[in-house]
Amino acid sequence: LGTSLSLRLVGADPHRARQTFARVEAEIARIETLASLHRDSALTRLNRDGHLAWPSPDLLDLLTLAGQVHAATGGAFDPTVQPLWLALASGTNSELARALIGWHRLRLTPEEIRLDPGQAVTLNGIAQGWAADRIADLLRAQGFTEALVDMGEIAALGESGWPAVIAGPNGTALAQTRLTNRALATSSPRGTLVNGQPHILGPQGQPPLWQTVSVSAPDAAIADALSTAFCLMDRAAIDKALARFPDARLEVAA
């Protein structure tokens, strides 16, 4: 998914750890066949062909969750911004690309995912968190009760709590928290630039309102998607969206 993975296991003997790491590598490979933009995957085939027949249940679940966050954030979270991202990266007409944005134009059924002509989807605002959740689920199934998964977004297992420092794009510490069976996602629009522009793009042309947003939640996918969308939303809109996800918490908006 274009990022690195860090995994810490507590109390595992070397043989068990090696077996677990092998299972994690296999699961990462499976996740990339679904949601990666950096290799051949179900997502790249959907974008290339405009439709995908009989998508996997996991991909359907991920896109369904993306739709729920889209609705809760008043459209600020919209994975169909991919044509705009490509236009900015290549220096082509961004207004033509913006006209292709629209989550409501994506048709999602168990039999098929279909896009309108010219549309494309990016899951970069949710897939890393979703992947962290899948690895956390794998570790729980293996009997691990204390683990920290960092895939760009963090999923923490265990009751003792994992300390986390939330930093801005310049590395300055903004807040501290402790994660107990909880996930944390942080988004900084100018942490990555696309031809000099913030990489988090407003689907209606709205600019980022915050330099750094951090959200915690029981699920990393929710935290990931909300932290992405909240960069484009004022505090009143953020609070309204959080009411739809009562277990999520805004940690930083600065």
Describe the structure.
This protein has 254 residues and is an alpha+beta fold. The chain has eight helices and 13 strands. The strands form four sheets. A six-stranded antiparallel beta sheet has the order 1-5-6-9-12-13, covered by helices on one side. A three-stranded antiparallel beta sheet has the order 2-4-3. Strand 5 (147-150) and strand 6 (154-157) form a beta hairpin. Helix 3 runs parallel beside helix 7 (220-230). The protein starts with 5 loop residues before the first strand and ends with a strand. The relative contact order is 0.15. The mean pLDDT is 93.
Keywords summarizing the entry:
alpha+beta, 6-stranded antiparallel beta sheet, 13 strands, 8 helices
The Rg value, from CA coordinates, equals 18 Å
Task: Return the average pLDDT rounded to an integer.
Answer: 93
Helix content: 25-40%
Strands of the widest sheet, in order across it, are 1-5-6-9-12-13
Span of the ends, CA to CA: 27 Å
Q: How many helices in DSSP terms?
A: 8
Largest sheet: 6 strands, antiparallel
Beta-strand residue fraction: 15-25%
Counting helices, strands and paired strands, the structural category is alpha+beta
Q: What is the N-to-C order of secondary-structure elements (H for helix, E for strand)?
A: EHHEHHHEEHEEEEEEEEHHE
Low-pLDDT runs of 5+ residues are: none
Number of strands: 13
Shape: globular
